[in-house]
Design goal:
About 35% of the residues lie in helices and about 20% in strands. The protein is an alpha+beta fold.
Length: about 140
Amino acid sequence: MAEFILDPAFVATSAMLGDLPLCQARLQLDARYPWVVLIPRLAGLRELEDLSPADRARLVEETVLAGAAVRAVGRALGLTVDKLNVGVLGNVTPQLHVHVLGRRTGDPAWPGPVWGHSSGEAYGPEARDRAIAAAKAALSV
C-alpha cells in the first residue's frame, strides 16, 4: 500500500495540531478565522468517495470534533463563532481535506465564502500559540 504524503501546500499554510484516528488536524494560518483543516492520512485520496464507508463515518465524527476545536480557538482569540462552515473543495490542492472554520457576522468575507475573498492575515506568535493550545486541548491531541 502507498504511503500517506502530505501535500506541501498544507505545510506552507497551516500548523500541525496532531493526529486523530483518521486525519491529521492542522490549524489554518489565517488569523481572521478560527480554522481547522483535516487531512485523512491515507494515500491517494481526492474525493469523499475514495474513502471506505467506515472511514467516511469516521471523517464525519472528526469533523464534528474539529468544530469544537474551532469554537475553542475562537474563544482563545476573542472571535465569536456564529456559524461553522465545512468545505471539501480541493480545487487548488486536490488531496482530500476538509475545512472547518468559524464564521461571524461582520467577518471580512461575511456572508460570502472565504475562499478567494482576500489574502490571509498572519498570526502573531502569541495568538498562534493560544490558538494551537486551544485546538489541541479540544481535540485531545
